[in-house]
Amino acid sequence: MTFKPKHSTPLLLATAIVGFSLATTANAAPPAFQDARALGMGGTGVASARPAGAALFNPALLAAEHDRWSDDFALTLPSVNARFADNDDVVDEIDAIQDALEGFEDAIRDFNSARESGDFTGAQNAVDDVQGSSENLARALTGLDQETMRLGFGAGTLLAVPGRNLAVGVHANAQLRATVKANMDDDDIAAFEAVTEAEDADAVESELDAIYDFDNDELRALGSEGEILASAVGEFGVSFARPFMIKSQEVMIGVTPKYVQMRTFDYRQGVDDFDDDDFDASDFETKDNHLNLDIGAATQVGPNDEWRLGASVRNLIPQSLKTAGDQNGEDRHELNLDPKVTVGVAHTSDWHTLAADLDLTKTDSLGPGADQQFLSLGGELNVAHWVNVRAGLRH
């Protein structure tokens, strides 16, 4: 929610400022927090954000000209967003595999007892149960391999006092991204398939030796595992902005010194013991606190200053944080908070805003996921000063 009032002049700006080109590396932080307006406009904001959201995109916009609904003060009460994607019910599937493994062990014990007692019929029935369970497990492991569940959550609040001499803003926000992933071991799948394809009871017993410890009457440790990989970034910043004349062109410059906390969680456990509710996060967590800086610039052009151009560099000081120590012989992931350079353009009138942003640098995901570099487009129609219709898209 945003509260504003006061005096007005034509709105928008356009800037020509070059953000220097910085390449990102390895695995990066969760996507930066966005307010509700930006989410409704495809993630744009570098040239189009109002004072209430300026600190999230471009602190220079605090010193830009705004209409009378935006030029006094702005307060965004806690804004919350959430995202969820589960392409194959990963956690439920892992639970189902655990149940199937218990049934598999029971079938092996029945098979072993029948063999020891000389019960040929019972042994043959147990062989059928063992091979049926083994076939189901091989199929389940193959189908679940590399499947993921992703979720994200963000919350933030902002206070801004825009101004043409010196504008000030304060913000606090945090963004979390988590992935649950199934990493199935090819050797496990091959072992279950070998049991399934065994031709007689003796061959079944021989193939089971790779999976089951008959001496201790228990399943051997599997290489297949589930993993919960999460990263969180929280920040508290104070923004300052003011206009400067550069070769007869007014350019707004803004800076946001901020305190940043980075956290990672990396929990890995064999699929037979994996439990998403039963892990001590502190044992799998790493944390780092540091100071960082955002900078931005914007300028207005056009006969009526109806165009605004902007550029920003977020997280000017590169930072990195590795996940908790090696687990099950796997390499550690690395969370990198690298400079992100974005340029934007916006056109406005009293009744509309059209905006476009382009990332000049890429952001990688922590763990599974593709590099991200967006072209964002958005629009807003001012139906009434307290009613806006927004739409946007990102590629």
Written account of the structure:
- With 395 residues, this protein is an alpha+beta fold.
- The chain has six helices and 16 strands.
- The strands form three sheets. It has an eleven-stranded antiparallel beta sheet. Strands 1-12-11 form a three-stranded mixed beta sheet, with no helix packed on it. A two-stranded antiparallel sheet has the order 5-6.
- Helix 3 (90-117) packs antiparallel against helix 4 (120-144), helix 4 runs antiparallel to helix 5 (186-197) and helix 5 runs antiparallel to helix 6.
- It is elongated and about 100 Å long.
- Residues 1-28 have low confidence and may be disordered.
